[in-house]
Amino acid sequence: MISVGEARGLIDSSVQVMATKKINISTLMTNGIPGDHDHVLAEPIIADRPLPPMDRVTMDGIAILYSAYENGQRRFKITGCQRAGEPALTLKNGGQECVEVMTGSILPTGCNAVLRYEDLDIKDSVATIKDGTPVEQYMYVHRKGSDSAAGDVLIKAGTRLGPAEWAVAASVGQENITVVGKPRVALVATGDEILPVEAMPRDFEIRGSNLYALAAAMGQRGFPVSSTTHLRDDLTQMHDKLSGLLNSHDVIITTGGVSKGKFDHLPEVLTDLRVTKIFHEVSQRPGKPFWFGVGERGQLVFGLPGNPVSVLVGFYAHVLPALIKMSGGTYQKRLARLAAPVTFKPELTLFQPVTVSMGDDGVMCALPKSHNTSGDYVRLSGTDGVIELPATRQSFAEGELFPFHSWSLN
Ligand code: AMP
Ligand code: MG
Question: Which of 32, 128, 345, 385 is the most buried (most CB within 10 A)?
Fold first, then answer.
């Protein structure tokens, strides 16, 4: 059986980064597909003109010619008002006069300093600078081209698009943005005992919950779900349906049907569909029977065991880093400080559910939350993620740092 680290290495080397695609910036405003704004840039964003494109006024007040001030002038007759969004006015008689200016307007021609209304007394269209006001050339002016020149790379390829990056893209008029695509992901539940949510199960049946957990986990991290399917533990149905899903998806995440039970058919069916098994079983708890393979087109198939806790652990520990890498990104590793000692004898990596809080020093503290079995998903509610305790040890002291996988943080 392979270790968690080996499993990660094998998955990582099976990942192919998705092809690029173009997104139109308008889709951000109009469609609600989770994560549509959250992509990795495949081409840089370039300044189409200097930034800012003009000498931009940054305070409401007046603009003057600085040399007039230097020569002792303190009273300026107001001769016009420069509004934002209008071409530059011209200060004609610079020694004596000034122009009122609004934040975001272009600096009027012939002016080279701005004074704030707060520093002025204005009466009968004459602005007088209050005593003690410091005045400098180009004060309250954001100079043209001071942030970047036309043609400069503003955002490098490989950057993950967030609010600031979208603002830059919009400001340089980049309507179509080339990004790394995201995988088409199929979620597949298996099990004869699994019924739809609206069903009234008999006592030997349960309502399926795994696909909801997975869809929520994916949505929270910006990955849309392309399809959801439920398969009975039936060789023929599994074969037919999975064959179709393999044709139309880049990633298939299944739950259940990969353990040692008589009706755990998935490994056999997948092998039959020419999905090459990379490994089966990882020395971890929960989630040991995890099956992973690669299809003929490079599709990744993650066969998670059916227990709801194993499903979430498997997703965060193994699937999510792959989805992120396929989409051009990097999985953010986090550490948290164990807030209570843990003893765990088996030679398995333990993924321990925890609640986290921020310590005084800014380091996350993870408090283990007890649960009964890997099927005890109800007690997962209220936890923030799992802390990963390595298989090489049996006791883990309070205060030690370990990898932490958050249910929600990116
Ligand atoms: P399996 O891995 O198929 O042996 O399933 C392990 C356990 O997980 C069984 O108790 C199943 O009933 C349960 N299980 C499997 N699939 C789901 C699902 N979609 N939702 C909730 N529980 C499930
Ligand atoms: Mg099953």
Answer: 385
Give the ligand whose atoms come closest to the C-alpha of residue 306: 1
Is 368 close to ligand 1, i.e. is its CB under 6 Å away? no
For the chain, domain boundaries: 4-17+182-326, 20-51+147-180, 56-142, 335-406
Model pLDDT for residues 188-232, shown as the tens digit of each residue: 999 999 999 999 999 999 999 999 999 999 999 999 999 999 999
- Residue nearest to ligand 1 atom 11, measured at CA: 306
Tokens at 354, concatenated: 């925890």
Instruction: Determine phi and psi for 161, rounding to 5 degrees.
Output: -75, 125
**C-alpha span between 393 and 342 (Å, rounded):** 11
Chain segment 154-191, per-residue pLDDT in tens: 999 999 999 999 999 999 999 999 999 999 999 999 99
pLDDT at 32: 64
Q: What is the pTM of this model?
A: 0.92
pLDDT at residue 372, as a whole number: 62
CB distance 314 to ligand 1 below 6 Å: no
Q: How far is the CA of 288 from the centre of ligand 2 (A)?
A: 15
Ligand 1 in contact with 287 (CB < 6 A)? no
CATH architecture of 335-406: Beta Barrel (2.40)
Hey, whose CA ends up nearest to atom 14 of ligand 1?
306
- Taking the CA of 208 as reference, the closest ligand is 1
